[in-house]
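Q: Start with the shorter request: fold the first protein.
A: Done. Sequence, then structure:
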Amino acid sequence: MSTRADDKLFLDLAARAALRAAGDVEPNPLVGAAIVRDGTLLGLGHHRRYGGPHAETEALGSAHRQGHCVRGATMYVTLEPCNAPGRQPPCTRAIIASGVARVVYARTDPNPLKAGGAQALRDAGIDTLLSDASPLATGISAPFVHRITTPLPWVIAKWAQTIDGRVATRGGESKWISNDRSRARVHKVRARVDAMLTGIGTVATDDPMLTARGVRRVRRVAARVVADTDLSISPESALVRTAGQAPTIVACDETLLTAEITRPKRETLGRAGVHLMGVPASANGRGLCVRTLLVRLREMHSISSVLLESGPGLLGACFDADVVNEALVYIAPMLLGDELARSVAVGRVAQSLNAARLLSLWRVRTIGNDVELLYRRPAT
């Protein structure tokens, strides 16, 4: 019988294998599997691409190619094996046929169409255990669980800041707070998400392209989405001029989609290839309702993951609406000490610490002289 330390070791291994396919499998989950006997790894596999073989099948194939018999072994898998056919046969069928004696999984499958795998394995006489020994293995399924259980995409908020929490000088200068290596890592994230979201203020100030550059393999061409309440985006902006090269969506107040005064602007943007999306105003009258914006991106454009790269206003609105799932933060070794320099997020009213949005630290890395922090909202 394996120990909890064994469970963590091999579930961590399966999770790290699963992460290799980030950006290739969504909206399906990242899943990894490891097959072990007496502490020896027999096979390792992960779900490589959307619609392709599942991790359990890949791990069984890996073991067989190496000449290992898996009968009586333990399979560690990051998500409960599926119990119904989809693009692939149910994994429970392959596991039962293989002779594996024990299955340890890190998270229950929330998809009602595929759930029940653990019970099916138990009914077949396989010792099956749900284990929380590996936070990594449990956590990599969080975006999938979120997509299944809510109408919202998974939102990653990214920003670079000084030690004293400033993202720009009082005059708006922000290029560059983080170093070259940190920015290269952000481009890799851009290459794995369905959409990048920014505000019209950032577009007006920085005129960004919002594309993944310098990345060896762009796994997804992300849509560029601009929250532009008054439909004020310039037809000469880089986003509009390159709308034919990548999906470009401008979200504006929904009343402007039929207003006669905006008809010429809508026609100009339409000819450039920009998709317009109407969104109601927020309840406080400041900007758009970001929750509805995200729901409509999911419903109308099948967007399941969003990288939020914006100024303090939109970032504050997203935290206020509680729609941020991850925060990817780069802290540079500099301090401004200017009370009028721009802070990370604004617009919320927080009269006590109880009003703060709480996050859990997920990972810490040093990138040259920068520090990369990855936070997630606490599990509920």
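Q: Next, the second protein, separately.
A: Sequence, then structure:
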Amino acid sequence: MQLKEHISPHTIITDVGSVKGDIHRAAVKAGLEAQFIGGHPMAGSEKTGFSSATAYLLENAYYVITPTSRTPAGQVSRFRSLVSALGAIPLVLDYDLHDFATAAISHLPHMIAYSLVNLVKEIDDSDQTMKTIAAGGFRDMTRIAASSPVMWQDICLSNKEQVLQLVDLYTRQLAKLRSYIEAEQKDAMTAYLQKPKTTVTP
């Protein structure tokens, strides 16, 4: 709101947050809907701070752009050009779709990683046998649990409804797999385990 009186009508205001809904609503409330374009570079790691920066962070990474209903097409085009100039791949999405998609492919995986690490820590023996023998598969799944707890607390609370919906959907998937194991339904298990091989990201 403080910027509104000082910027030109051609100025683009953007952000790089992981959740778009709250900031879109704030832009509307501030009367900046015509100048705001949400942005989310789909890049980064579990590390934080300037010392973890890299000149190639955005190279060939998708950069989601979420215009408002009042963002002029010309402004969107200008912003797409800026994103491309950074080496990233611009992708225009509705902000609600963005928040649901990132809840599925980013926010939920982080919650799974945190919960898995906490589970192993709780059930490990005094010699930390599980921690000692944890191999590549466990490390690959749980690397992101080293991410900033404060940042992920904020992300989950900002995208609360979407994250909760995805946690429920994931719990149902886990329950389905559990039922196959309990009933020793080999064919159903094989089919279930085979399905991701055609869709998983290499």
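Q: Describe the second briefly.
A: Helices lie at 21-29, 73-85, 95-123, 129-133, 136-142, 149-158, 160-182, 186-194. DSSP finds eight helices and four strands in the chain.
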